[in-house]
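U., I forgot to send this yesterday:
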Amino acid sequence: MSTHTYSHVFNQVHSFVFLSDNMRNVLREVIRENGISPDKLMQEWSTIERGIRAWLDSGHLNNIVVEFFKPGSLVADARWDFPIRHTGSGVVDDMWLDKNYLRQVIAKSKRPSSDCTYRILLCTDDGAPEVSGFTRCSFLSTGQMTARQAGTVIATGHVTASATYWR
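Result:
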């Protein structure tokens, strides 16, 4: 029984690492393909990754959001949501990221203006443990934009991330 438990925990941790590493790549791609430098993401990644991994491990992470906005604005110029599902595909060895599909979806999405910046928000369920470097905040208004679900972009046997873009 301990071998099964170890294997399950090992596979689950490996899934969390895979999702976290590939979310960095997905976020960088979305930011870069929208004509904005991903330098801020890369500089802040160690903090973002700490939050992602802590809340994946506790089961509280439910969404990763990137909001594009003009400095000082309360309205998002563009937005991407990456809902996290803790059910996964159920197939132990299933681990993939569909970069070609992601690029197709980015091509359809609303482009933020070139004077925008961005922020990454990690959304959790109630009861999530505190993680150093994170504070509560609210979403920017999406104004007249509507959400368009684009399907799964990252899948593992334990957890998946879908994409939703706002137009």
